[in-house]
Write a structure and sequence with these properties.
The protein is α+β, with helices and mostly antiparallel strands. The chain contains 6 helices and 7 strands.
Length: 212
């Protein structure tokens, strides 16, 4: 015959075991459910379409800075390069010819591969052709300035454009505007000149540095 004390002991053991099991389960790390394959693609496409629509509306209303902001966000989402070309077009409208030319030249020299049938994301021929046409137009209007530094012999000069260091001497592609070109070298007096550039300019600026 089973005594009441034996039953109570069995109940206590069972209850303790159940509590330990629950504790272990709650302490176990949660297993993350992997995202479904391709789930991010529709969201990316939707964001790209929204940004392109914002940019198109801004361009129609001559809100070029807003268009530029939207297209800068759209560019990395668009493997076709169409957003890149439109970004350059918007930069052109604001007079930022140097950046527009740089973007277009990089795209024309290394466009995305041609798109195979029924695939998405590659560069259509129309985008590449549009980039070439726009680059030809921007290149004609973007001012060029050739900076020449003399008098320093083998001592390399440090050159700045509006206070910012540049690689030089050499030819610079710039936006229309007024620029202060300065140069200095160890053992030489600093030299500086201002130059005003308008669209289409091709100018040379020479600075001769004199010894201290």
């Amino acid at each position: 015959m089973i005594s009441s004390s034996s039953i109570r002991l069995a109940v206590v053991i069972y209850t303790s075991a159940a509590a330990i099991s629950l504790s272990l389960l709650s302490a176990a790390p949660a297993v993350a459910t992997p995202p479904k394959a391709g789930a991010a693609a529709p969201a990316k496409d939707s964001e790209l379409k929204s940004l392109l629509a914002q940019a198109e509306a801004a361009m129609k209303e001559s809100r070029f800075d807003d268009a530029i902001a939207a297209l800068r966000q759209a560019d990395p989402l668009d493997p076709s390069g169409a957003a890149k070309v439109e970004l350059a077009r918007a930069l052109d409208k604001t007079g930022k010819l140097a950046e527009a030319a740089s973007i277009l030249r990089a795209y024309v020299e290394a466009p995305p591969p041609p798109k195979p049938p029924k695939s998405k994301g590659a560069a259509p021929a129309s985008s590449v052709d549009a980039a070439k046409d726009l680059l030809a137009s921007v290149d004609k209007r973007a001012p060029r300035l050739s900076v020449i530094i003399t008098g320093t012999g083998s001592t390399p000069p440090k050159i700045t454009l509006n206070g910012k260091p540049i690689d030089g001497p050499g030819e610079l592609t710039l936006d229309p505007g007024t620029f202060l070109v300065a140069a200095e070298a160890k053992g030489y007096l600093r030299g500086a000149k201002k130059v005003k550039l308008v669209a289409g300019d091709r100018k040379k600026l020479q600075l001769e540095l004199r010894k201290m």
